[in-house]
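Journal club prep, shared notes

We agreed each person brings one worked example of a sequence with its structure written out as tokens. Mine is HxlR-like helix-turn-helix family protein. I'm keeping it raw so we can talk through how to read the token line rather than staring at a rendered picture. Sequence first:
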Amino acid sequence: MKIQLEVQDHSKCHMNERCNKYEMCPINLVHKIISGKWKILILWYLMPNPLRFSDLRRKLPDVTQKMLTQQLRSLESHNLVYRKVYPVVPPKVEYGLTECGEKLIPVLESMYSYGVDYLQDNSLDSLKLDK
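Then the structure, token by token:
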């Protein structure tokens, strides 16, 4: 079922209250779907083409196998990522963006551009980033 959303003035949006028209504020919904330590990076790396699990592990060396599996399953359950199993030996599994996931590409590209601008405007030494 597709819900038609109306663009609302941010000043009328109260994050601590649910939207009257929907069960959840749309921005809060998106936050819940893509929040997670690795989800945005997984989506970013899947943008150009599908990848195997091992390829994602190489691109995200700090993620554990268990965590990567959990994050991929969550993205899959929200229809952002698909999992394709090939009937070969040894088993081959690829992950890629669904049509729904591809709709996030402009958002991810904007986040990348913002990061570039932020790095140019701010001293890296002054940033206190969680590792």
